[in-house]
Amino acid sequence: MTLVIEADRASLLHAGRSVRTWPVQHITSLTTRAAGDLTDHRGLLLIERAAPGALKVLRAAGRSFATSAGEVHLVEPPELLILQPPTQAPTLAPSPSRSLSKGAARVGRWLLLHADARDTTISELATASRTSVATASRAVAQLADRDLLRVATATDARQRAVNASDPAQLLDAIADEGPWRRARQTTWDVGARTTAHALDLIRTAASATGLPYCVGGLAGAALVEPLVEPAVATIWVRQPDLEAWQRELIAEPARPATGRITVRIAPDPVILDWATDHDGLRIADLVQLYIDCRYSGERAIDLTDAIRRRLLPTP
């Protein structure tokens, strides 16, 4: 038998003929908690990423699903069909292109971090996001074209009031951008054997040098939502400061391991500027922590979900 997955349906074929068809539901990342809400519906779930316990919940509930890793669990009473992962994993429907300019990503980030701000004008956005009025205007236009912002009419374009149409979609559009996934990075051995020790060394080095930085990745997120114990401490820094950080930390290049530090080059300086203080450390803003966690694998799914709930306003 062969399982054919399309954008809106999946079909089980035998000898080239369809013997079963399911409507499909696409899920980017699935937490164990969310999986419990999916146990009373028909159809096939197409899952890009899942927390370890989430698939167990679905199996126990008799839900059919397929993952991007190639795991397929099909339930067709009175039979249970379990297909071994194929050589090539099922292809999930691609998401639409959402390439955003740096200005648009920055304006969108500011709006997400200031959810209580209402009817912010383009002129105010320019000041708050540290861009020119022209850049802010182009950024707002790009986001509005994607239905991510609502823009009121006004005679003076600079005074047009701007609000997020759908904060969740705006967050996803920013997180989808390549610079966060392709940021240059290196890992250092600084002599620490635990992440806590590595963070202490970062705190001391930052105090001695006065260089801008922020803690990101799972280490930063765990300081906000202590759901995991990160093995590596991740910091965002400026490219020109990389050698100074290495000297101050007495760091040697190394592979990722417990107690080591992963240093990433910030593609936008506001990552450092908009960080917040926490116990003597600078912690990346919630948007950046969400992005970092989102691309940290299945172990970070519950933490990603927790940061997202903190960031998005409750309906």
Question: Your description of this structure?
Answer:
With 315 residues, the protein is α+β, with helices and mostly antiparallel strands. Helices cover 36% and strands 25% of the residues. The chain has 13 helices and 17 strands. The chain has helices spanning 32-35, 52-60, 102-113, 122-129, 133-145, 167-175, 178-181, 195-209, 217-224, 242-249, 270-273, 286-294, 301-311; strands spanning 2-5, 9-14, 17-30, 44-50, 64-67, 72-76, 79-83, 120-121, 149-151, 161-164, 185-189, 214-216, 233-237, 252-253, 261-265, 276-278, 281-283. The strands form four sheets. The protein has a seven-stranded mixed sheet. Strands 12-13-15-11-14 form a five-stranded mixed sheet. Strand 5 and strand 6 form a beta hairpin. Helix 3 (102-113) crosses helix 4, helix 3 (102-113) crosses helix 6 and helix 12 runs antiparallel to helix 13. The longest helix has 15 residues, at 195-209. Mean pLDDT is 84; it is low at 77-96.
Quick overview of this protein structure:
The chain has about 325 residues and is of the alpha+beta class. It contains 13 helices and 17 strands.
